[in-house]
Structures are given as structure tokens and as C-alpha cells.
């Protein structure tokens, strides 16, 4: 078992927020899988309104030659309110289970994030065990054309004032305030793949400005990494398209799976080393994700510094029962 603040994950294997946990049935299937220690919902971008899903625009496909995916999705067509209702339904249907949930949300507006947290907190406090629900802020979707993901901007800040005024800095202030009021609230960040050492160091420098009461980190975990944006895979290299009117299309979007495994491992290792050097940040755990397609890849993630390992592409291709059994080096049940 791995403890992330008040969240207990056993075994230390989860799905990550992705298109294959969009609906109730998909979330339920991940929950019922005996090899997942927690279930992450797809990223919701609004409390009561979902993100538009466009035919011929939003979809995913798989490489013919490796377990690699490329997707053009943004966020879930379902709102946060739907995911909280489904989490409650699953908990009510399985009262003996203690498996927790990580509810993924996103926004660039501090007031919206504050409202999302208030909604989630009100929900958590209706549960017999509020610690079973954690929150992940997705700061890294590469397919939203409105602007750069907030986490990419953060390492470009030059001083404390810029960090605090940055889009992610304003969101971190909201998170830190909420976690200061309720230490049982487990909050994390889903991060993009960074590509040079200065980005990692600058990100950690900025995060340290939001330490709570001089001793507690503002977040409890990182999910490293999201997909790698601006990746082009021609139709001739692809198969298994999913999404309305997407068959046979060239795909330019976020690459996941084996194509980004080395980069994801490097991100996990870089953050693990830097966090260990900061007393106030060393309790932050890492969920290692990106190209986790075998039991050997799980071991590599743990060796790099991941406390928990996450997967999306493999279970999107195989289904949760087969995929997570493979990652656990077990037979499917």
C-alpha cells in the first residue's frame, strides 16, 4: 500500500485520466478490476457543463507497430457533477470496497477552481470516509488551442512575483488555501512532459513558494506525464481509430504509450531527485505514467522514483481487466 496524504492506494497501480474513463460503465470497469488500487476519472472542465465533443475532430488511434496512441481530445463531455454522482453510485453499489477515486478537473480561472473545490468538498463530507476521494488538477492537456498548458508557462517565471501572478501560480494559491483549511484533502497536479533540466528546477522553485505553514507541500502528488503534444502520426501508420467520423484520418495531437516512455521515465527521475532535496516538498509522491505497457515498464517507473504507476494507452487498447493484469504480471480474472 502507498499512502498519498490521506489517500491509500493498494496495489500501487491506477488508470490515468483519459478518454477510456469517460462514462459510468468505463469507470465501473476500472473500479471492478482487482489490479487497480484507485480509479481516476476523465478530466472535467466545468461543474455542470461538459466540454464539447466534436465529430471529425476529437478521437484517438493506435500505432500499427507499437503500443502507442495519438489523441486529439481535450476534456470530458461530462461535467464534474456527473462524475461525483457516478463515484457515489459506485460506492453505494460496493459498500465493502475501500478503493479510492481521483477526480480530475481543469480550469485556468481561480474562481472556477475554487468553486470546483467547494463542490468536491461538499461531496466528500457526505461520505463515510472523505479520504477516499482525491483531486487532480490537469495542467497539461496539449490539445486545447486557447493557450499553452499552465504548467508549461510556470517554469518561465523569473522571480517570486511572476510565479505567484502566473496562471498556475494563481491556481496553486487556491489549492494551498483549500489544503490548509482541510489537511485531509489530497490534491495533485497532472504535468506535461518537460524536456530540459532547467524546466524541472524552475518548476520546483516555483512550487516551493506555496508551501503551507512553512512545512507542508501545497500538493500531495504529481502525475508525470501527460501526452506529448503536436505529435503527427499519418493515417498509414495507424489503426483502431475511435471517435465519430475519425476513421482513416491523419492524427496530430498528444502522443502516449511506448513512444514517450523514455521521456516519461526521465521526467519521473528528474522530479523525484529534486523533490527529495527539498524538505518541505519531499512528501510529494509521483504517479509515473507514459508508455507503461508491460510489467517491466512498471518496474522501470518505480526504479525512476514513482510511488504509483499509471496507464492509459494499454488499457485503452486491451480493456482494463487484461491490461492491468498484464502490468501486474498476473492472469486476467
From TrEMBL:
Provide this UniProt record's keywords sorted from A to Z: Flavoprotein, FMN, Oxidoreductase, Pyrimidine biosynthesis
Keyword Flavoprotein listed:
yes
One GO term in the molecular function aspect is: dihydroorotate dehydrogenase activity
Q: Name one GO biological process term.
A: 'de novo' UMP biosynthetic process
Coiled coil (residue ranges): none
Keyword Metal-binding carried by entry: no
Taking every annotated instance into account, which residue ranges of this chain make up the domain Dihydroorotate dehydrogenase catalytic?
36-323
PROSITE patterns cross-referenced by the UniProt entry: DHODEHASE_2 (PS00912)
What's the short name of a Pfam family annotated to this entry? Answer: DHO_dh
Q: Needs which cofactor?
A: FMN
Domain of life according to the entry: Eukaryota
Record pathway: Pyrimidine metabolism; UMP biosynthesis via de novo pathway
One GO cellular component this record assigns the protein to is: cytoplasm
PANTHER family, sorted = DIHYDROOROTATE DEHYDROGENASE (FUMARATE), DIHYDROOROTATE DEHYDROGENASE (QUINONE), MITOCHONDRIAL-RELATED
Protein name, UniProt field: Dihydroorotate oxidase
Give the species this sequence originates from. Schizophyllum amplum
